[in-house]
Task: inverse folding
């Protein structure tokens, strides 16, 4: 399975630094703490990409179920373009270039948000078609996908608020440990 990784901590004069944004870095007094922080970030990012992949699979199945109901050539082209964009985003997200860039975690996070937006757009388009064609089963499935997308998007935005905009290491470490525990606990339930 493809795993997202962020760059290793860099050694400065007396600190090990991890960069999470263009102007955001976290300094640690020893390498072990820096690597622990890095592994927590990677776990969160990998859980997010696994979740979006599962949701996208469901949304794509709904799209294929509704395919023959799409009468408008414009809608077909629009949805096909969205599907192509999602596939492109997945390829870009898993590209190895982010492992070497010092802002790799920030780029991965930004790409994840873009990916969520694209899947949300696809799901919204399919929901509209299902509503128009009175396909209630597909509407219900799309509704479930919407709730999952919003829940994961809310989590990612909370991560951004607590991590990318807040440099209080103790709070962040507590937040990361609690989020990892929640994700590990919830993951089997989501399948």
Result:
């Amino acid at each position: 399975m493809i795993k997202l990784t962020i760059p290793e901590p860099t050694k400065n004069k007396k600190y090990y630094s991890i960069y999470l944004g263009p102007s955001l870095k976290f300094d640690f007094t020893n390498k072990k703490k820096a690597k622990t922080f890095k592994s927590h970030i990677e776990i969160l990012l990998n859980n997010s990409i696994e979740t979006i992949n599962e949701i996208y699979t469901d949304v794509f199945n709904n799209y294929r179920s509704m395919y023959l109901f799409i009468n408008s050539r414009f809608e077909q082209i629009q949805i096909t373009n969205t599907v192509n964009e999602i596939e492109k985003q997945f390829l870009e997200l898993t590209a190895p270039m982010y492992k070497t860039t010092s802002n790799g975690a920030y780029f991965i996070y930004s790409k994840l948000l873009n990916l969520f937006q694209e899947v949300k757009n696809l799901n919204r388009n399919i929901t509209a078609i299902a509503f128009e064609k009175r396909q209630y089963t597909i509407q219900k499935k799309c509704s479930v996908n919407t709730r999952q997308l919003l829940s994961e998007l809310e989590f990612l935005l909370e991560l951004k608020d607590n991590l990318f905009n807040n440099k209080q290491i103790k709070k962040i470490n507590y937040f990361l440990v609690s989020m990892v525990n929640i994700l590990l606990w919830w993951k089997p339930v989501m399948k």
